[in-house]
Amino acid sequence: MNDQEQPTLSLGEAPKRLTVKAGGVPQAWLWPLLGLQLLVAAILIAVWLRSNGTAGVSSINDHMLGELKAAATALEDRSLHAEAARTWRAYLDANLTDPQRAQILYRAGKLAFKAEDFSQAVTLLVQAEQSADDGSDLKAKIGPLVVDCLRRLGRYGEVGRELSRRVEAGGDQTDQGKVLATLAGENFTEADLDRMIERRVDQMLSAPGATGDAAQRDALVKQLSSTAMRRQMLEEFLQTELFVRRARELKLDRTDGFLRARRFLVENLLAARFLAEEIEKIQPTDVDVESYYKANQQQYEEPKSMAAVLLELGDQEDAKAVLEKVESADKFKKLAAERTGKADSKETIQPHRIVHGRSDAKLGDVNELFKLSVDNWTKEPHTGSDRKRFLVLCDVKTPARTPPLSQIRWRVEADYRARKRREISDRLYRDLMARFDVKVRPIEASEPAEPQGKLEQPDEQDQEP
Fold first, then answer.
1. Suppose 94 and one of 42, 47, 62, 395 were both cysteines; which one would form an S-S bond, judging by CB atoms 3.0 to 4.6 Å apart?
2. Is residue 428 pLDDT above 80, yes or no?
3. Residue 108 half-sphere exposure, CB side, CA atoms within 13 Å?
4. Are 62 and 69 in contact (CB under 8 A)?
5. How far apart are CA 280 and CA 421, in angstroms?
6. What is the pLDDT of residue 4?
7. What is the DSSP string of 256-316?
8. What does CATH list as the number for 1-173?
């Protein structure tokens, strides 16, 4: 299977002011569009006159052909794909001997595809294929696009026959590996599955928080290339493909609800893509990262912490009786180890790390424990989470510190990128507000709802004089 050729969107110079009348079109577009329509109409009349033997048209026709070609290019530059395709078609109807006929038909077919007029696109592409020279590179480009049009039209039987026809005609064939599934004559091979895995990896690496380095990519490819994951991805593909095919057969992709939802998704995706393209232009240098680190060292400061040894008491156990057995820090550790069953083993008890200013899952509020000095322990039980009681020994204290940049560079660079992302987003928003002359009116507070019906008036005797 071939990846769909993604349409390329082009944004022309925005008007400085958009004035829209109710039920009308923007004035900035009205006259150019009207002029293009008049031009096309005039050329078509000239072509008709020429076909009926009217004298004096040929000299005018050459000039008009140039204008029609320029009009088609202008419409294409403004992303008016359907109008541009029709204008190119009109140009070819008026100029049957253009040596670039096959290329122009292919160009018009792609424009019709972008306009989602797939029937017209197939017609233009087939004509382009017939006009192209045998063995030309253009035919290799046309074939996959024709198949894509048929698929978008829901003509899956024709898709299989088209692929078979191209194989019989000697189309370019490469080793695609083992055929994993066949859908209406269309093969899904190991190579297709490999491409799916690569696209899935690229999507995962482009997600926020992903580092995107070679090591992470290799790890993801290895994970998704396992037999179990390949089987799962094949099942996911088949299910999605079958659901899509049935939905197109039912014309669900033509319903108003689907078109609205797709427009919403496309607009959000396009906005996100625009912002991503702008952000990718900013690549932080070593100087940028170092400057950001120096200006924001306080946010990377690690608070003081403590390695504490915990001795948990029973529900009714007397803390004083336990403390009488504790004569030193070593005795405390030994007693704590006995309670965990590690006193006779070579394994030493692992201290419990607590951080100043942070609630601990086992001990709860730990700020009071930082008053202990090293090798000292609490003389009263400390009540932690779940009402459990502990005697706590301060084993090691670590003062607050700011780690060097070399240890947290990845974190500093991520924070720098996040800040630049916010700055760029805000700047672009302000610039585009001015570019498109956006005026925002304040939202007024809604009026309180009027009470329904009449309020009962108090009786005169109930009113105060």
1. 47
2. yes
3. 29
4. no
5. 10
6. 46
7. HHHHHHHHHHHHHHHHHHHHHHHHHT----HHHHHHHHHHTGGGGPBPPEEEEEEEEPPTT
8. 1.25.40.10
Report the distance separating Cα 206 and Cα 372, nearest Å.
48
- Is 303 in contact with 355 (CB distance < 8 Å)? yes
Ramachandran region, residue 135 (left: φ > 0; alpha: ψ -120 to 50; beta: rest): left
105's tokens:
């038909």
Which CATH architecture is the domain 302-398 placed in?
Roll (3.10)
Report the 10 Å Cβ neighbour count for 421.
16
Determine the Cα–Cα distance for residues 84 and 78; give it in Å rounded to an integer.
Answer: 9
pTM of the model: 0.44
Quick count: other Cβ atoms within 10 Å of Cβ 290? 14
Query: In angstroms, rounded to a whole number, what is the distance separating the alpha carbons of residues 49 and 51?
Result: 5
Common-topology check for domains 1-173 and 302-398: no
Mean pLDDT, residues 199-206: 77
Domain boundaries, the chain: 1-173, 177-254, 255-300+404-431, 302-398
Give the gyration radius of the chain's Cα atoms: 37
* Residue for token pair 């240890």: 407
Give the tens place of pLDDT for each residue, 368-394: 999 999 999 999 999 988 888 999 999
